[in-house]
Design goal:
- There is one protein chain.
- The protein has about 270 residues and is of the alpha/beta class.
- The chain is built from seven helices and ten strands.
- Helix 1 packs across helix 2, helix 3 packs parallel to helix 4 and helix 4 runs antiparallel to helix 5.
Length: about 270
């Protein structure tokens, strides 16, 4: 790799190699320095070029070129379908655009027109996250640890693998996705480091207790506030006893929320 040093330092390093008998010719030395400075400028330009293509700092066209090298361009083809009749799952968004009978759109999934459209990742920060995750996929890092790292790059430290079984894995962002992030929902399973043949599904809820059995899951009546919570006044101040102790409600429990496995249908329009 070419060492990045000051242009004048690079020039004088070469001038120092001039034989003694030629050092008494100022015109020759001037000519040599003139041309050496031009070479030094080119050399330092090549030397600093990698800094413009650092995945952490590249922007705009530089980031676009990195994406092309990684096989993940800014623009992708996704499905463009009409809203369909459906219901949510504990308020969790669906991979479909759902609506009631009175909304504009079609009634059933198979009864309406579907098509494709191009969508482009114009936001550099979001595109950078996609490219960082793409590196895991290119290296075939299909282990759970790598997948966890990848989804946390994409969505943050609260993202986690909720469940995995034969031929499927369920990942959760751990937070509500923005409208911009949801627009690229069909792209996430295309870029995540998951072995071919494994179906990637998503749970988009923000609740941290999910119904199930075993460690890390929640049953029907799990303690949420084992000691209870304070009883507040209309002004938001907690009620207290004569001894200035807060009055508690007593233990509170609730059932875990359902895990809603959403299929993004990454390569088809259904």
């Amino acid at each position: 790799m070419v060492e990045c040093i000051d242009n004048e330092v690079r020039v004088e390093q070469r001038i120092d190699r001039v034989l003694t008998q030629y050092r008494e010719s100022p015109n020759l030395l001037y000519l040599m320095r003139t041309y050496l400075r031009q070479v030094a400028e080119v050399t330092n330009t090549v030397c600093t070029m990698p800094d413009f293509f650092d995945l952490d700092t590249a922007v705009g066209e530089q980031l676009t070129l990195l994406g092309q090298r990684l096989g993940w361009p800014r623009c992708h083809c996704i499905c463009n379908s009409q809203p369909v009749f459906g219901f949510d799952c504990n308020g969790v968004p669906s991979s479909y655009v759902t609506g009631s009978f009175c909304d504009d759109g079609v009634t059933w999934i198979d009864c309406g027109p579907t098509g494709t459209t191009d969508i482009c990742i114009t936001d550099d920060d979001l595109y950078r996250r996609f490219l960082k995750v793409r590196r895991y996929q290119m290296l075939s890092l299909y282990d759970p640890e790598s997948l966890t790292e990848a989804i946390r790059i994409m969505w943050g430290e609260n993202a986690w693998i909720m469940d995995a079984g034969v031929g499927r894995v369920v990942v959760a962002p751990g937070r509500a996705l923005t409208d911009a992030e949801m627009a690229f929902f069909q792209l996430y399973p295309r870029v995540l480091p998951v072995a071919p043949g494994i179906n990637v599904k998503f749970h988009l809820g923000t609740e941290d207790i999910i119904f199930g059995f075993g460690e890390g899951w929640s049953g029907f009546c799990e303690d949420v506030y084992p000691n209870g919570t304070t009883i507040d006044t209309e002004d938001g101040d907690p009620l207290v006893t004569e001894d200035d102790e807060e009055i508690l409600t007593g233990p509170l429990t609730r059932a875990g929320h359902w895990m809603c496995e959403i299929d993004a249908h990454p390569y088809d329009c259904v």
